[in-house]
Design a protein that fits this description.
With 113 residues, the chain is of the alpha/beta class. The chain contains 2 helices and 7 strands. It has a 5-stranded mixed beta sheet with strand order 3-2-1-6-7, with helices on one face. The two termini are 24 Å apart. This is Dinitrogenase iron-molybdenum cofactor biosynthesis protein. It holds the Pfam family Nitro_FeMo-Co.
Length: 113
Amino acid sequence: MRIAVTTSNGVKVDQHFGKATRFDVYDVEGDEMKLVETREVTSYCSAGGQPVADHKFSSDRFSTVKEKLEDCEKLYTMQIGEKPKEQFDIIGIAVQTCTCSVDKIPGCSGKCK
């Protein structure tokens, strides 16, 4: 399974989906994870490099990020808005909110400590 992770440092799931400027992408098989690549993005909550004050859903901003994650089956993120989560569900990418260490993702149930 291919997954994407919102992380600032590759160690912990510590980024809100809307503020993430990178997604680490892994191939996961059982308990084994292999980093495929880090994909840089303009964060969903920004336009033209500037933060967006209103957090209304934007299909244009979402599409930019979605294109980077289309080959993933699951997204692990610290937090995500309801509309982006619904859009990921529609395109078949499951969203798991968590704050675990990246190496603990294979057993993650979202009840991280």
